[in-house]
Design a protein that fits this description.
By secondary structure, the chain is mainly alpha-helical. It contains 6 helices and 2 strands, in the order ααααβαβα. A two-stranded parallel ribbon has the order 1-2.
């Protein structure tokens, strides 16, 4: 199955097994979001498509309207974003909007790293070193 075919199935109002289909989609996206992951066991307890669907609609609206980034103006504590250079989500798409609204913001880019640095072979140690230092 492909991401497109699984997404199409999720849009079918007649399908009853959406949690299972959503789990398959999550596994594919996880592979696509990784650069060189170490073997790991998924930490997802249960995939709940209907919860995701409702939350994501709200998140998409906040993003589209610009309200999500605007909420960053309310953040008063230091923020450090740790991002992989091979993450499917654009580093600049994270760095630029957050730096524009959060006064005490730093951005750290990890080499050879996808979306989840804690499982990436080349970035895991650097990620945990940074995390320990920042905490």
């Amino acid at each position: 199955m492909t991401i497109d075919s699984l997404s199409e199935i999720l849009n079918d109002p007649e399908r009853q097994d959406k949690n299972e289909i959503f789990a398959q989609l999550g596994e594919l996206i996880s592979k696509a979001d990784s650069y060189d992951p170490l073997p790991y066991k998924s930490d997802v307890i249960e995939y709940q498509y209907y919860i995701f669907e409702n939350v994501w609609k709200e998140a998409e609206e906040l993003r589209r309207s610009g309200k999500l980034v605007a909420l960053g103006k309310k953040i008063r504590c230091p923020v450090v974003a740790i991002h992989g250079d091979c993450d499917a989500h654009s580093a600049e798409g994270v760095k630029i909007p957050l730096a524009s609204v959060i006064k005490n913001f730093r951005f750290i880019l990890l080499k050879n790293c996808g979306h989840r640095p804690w499982i990436e072979r080349a970035a895991k140690d650097a990620f945990y070193t940074i995390l320990k230092k920042e905490l």
